[in-house]
Amino acid sequence: MQQDGLIQELQNGNERAFERIYQLYSESTYGIIFAIVKDEKVAEEILQDVYMKIWNNASSYDSDKGRFFTWILNIARNASIDKLRSKDFKNKRQNLQPDNFVDILETRTNYAAATDAIGIKKFLNAIEPVCKKLIDLLFFQGFTQKETAEELKMPLGTVKTKNRACIKSLRELVLE
Amino acid sequence: MDLHEYISSGILELYVCGALSEEESREVSRELKKHPEIREEVEEIEKALSQLAVSVAPYNPESLLASIKSKIAAKKEKTVPLHRKTSSIFTYMGWAASLLLLIGLFFLFNQNNDLREALKREQTRNAQMEQQIADARENAERAEELLAIIRDRNTTRIQLAGQAVAPDSYATVFWNIDANQAFIDAQGLPEPPRGKVYQVWSLTVQPLRPTSIGLLSDFAEDENKVFQLRNANNSEAFGITLEPEGGSETPTMDQLYVMGTVGTP
């Protein structure tokens, strides 16, 4: 739920509002960052930078452009991809990471308390391979619709409708 | 506008993911402010995706808030405002010139950002292509390995025929006795229902004793449906049964899909 009043308060520089925003969004932000860099410590660093940016640049969020959630998502994905491309990170990690969020979740034994673990497991059992790719590219990697269509050699319209079907099954299993 | 059609088009999902162009995004934001139904739908999508992201997080990063707040506080102290009183035409001209410079810089900065974004995407795509090539190479190596096993003179080929529950199914076991390896070609088995898994058994006839040699896990995911299992038994026959997820201690005989005996060499 997007709380416009809370965002307004954040933009006014209210620290309590920032704390609340952090409570509401930090765990999902951390998940996004982790899905890209696949390293807990590095993801922690990036998460801190991302929330510094959220605090410092809150005024640049504009609800006419999109959702607050999406704004944070973009900051987090950009910061993570920047890190991924940086020299020191490249040297540190070789190609031993799992591929996408499904691989991460499948090797996970304990889920965070806030997660509906049963729903997520059901989703993993039911997810079609194409949904895995679509959600990975569009949500976790931040590809645009066009880039996704090119990447998966799929018509633009199919990306749109199929992605809806994929997220629909996620909704049915995760939110009851 | 047909609200139902708009919602089911899938544009709202792309909107939440941030996959639309800026213009398309603005359009959706406008519609969202006009129609509570759209807003509700967007919030549901957001909630589900947020849950998914939360589940990927290794843990709740609550404890980092304190460190972020102290960094913010440290930054604040450094930027103490300066007061100075000067006002002349030169000051204003100075300000005007700085403003112009700023606008120019901002323009360049924006352009630079766009370029960086594009570069970043290209780099991500490159990395993905590299991964795909590596995957393809791995597949080819695996296929070669399979072929070598099948051609090996120590490999026995056992045909498993469909049984009462599934008369049309079949499978083949390539058993390399020296290497204690069994390859199961399960192309002829139907996809197992959800919550069930195929389990492979090695059987001895005198006395009749089944020994599990493994599960055909991730059946639906495996494209060529060839599974490698270890078999160090003196098998006289092989059977495949359908069992609950995780497998069973002993085979469920009324769910015996295929079976075949090892011919005398």
UniProtKB/TrEMBL annotation, chain A:
Signal peptide: none annotated. Residues 22-88, 132-172 form the RNA polymerase sigma-70 region domain. Keywords: DNA-binding, Sigma factor, Transcription, Transcription regulation. It comes from the Bacteria. It holds the Pfam family Sigma70_r4. InterPro entries: RNA_pol_sigma-70-like (IPR039425), RNA_pol_sigma-70_dom (IPR014284), RNA_pol_sigma70_ECF_CS (IPR000838), RNA_pol_sigma70_r2 (IPR007627), RNA_pol_sigma70_r4 (IPR007630), RNA_pol_sigma_r2 (IPR013325), RNA_pol_sigma_r3/r4-like (IPR013324), WH-like_DNA-bd_sf (IPR036388). Belongs to the sigma-70 factor family. ECF subfamily. This is RNA polymerase sigma factor. It comes from Autumnicola musiva.
TrEMBL record, chain B:
The keyword Transcription does not apply. The chain crosses the membrane at residues 89-109. It is found in: Cell membrane; Membrane. It is a single-pass membrane protein. Keywords: Cell membrane, Coiled coil, Membrane, Transmembrane, Transmembrane helix. Residues 112-153 form a coiled coil. Pfam families: RskA_C. The keyword Disulfide bond does not apply. InterPro entries: Anti-sigma-K/W_factor (IPR051474), Anti_sigma_zinc_sf (IPR041916), RskA_C (IPR018764). Gene3D superfamilies: Anti-sigma factor, zinc-finger domain. Residues 96-252 form the Anti-sigma K factor RskA C-terminal domain. This is Regulator of SigK. It comes from Autumnicola musiva.
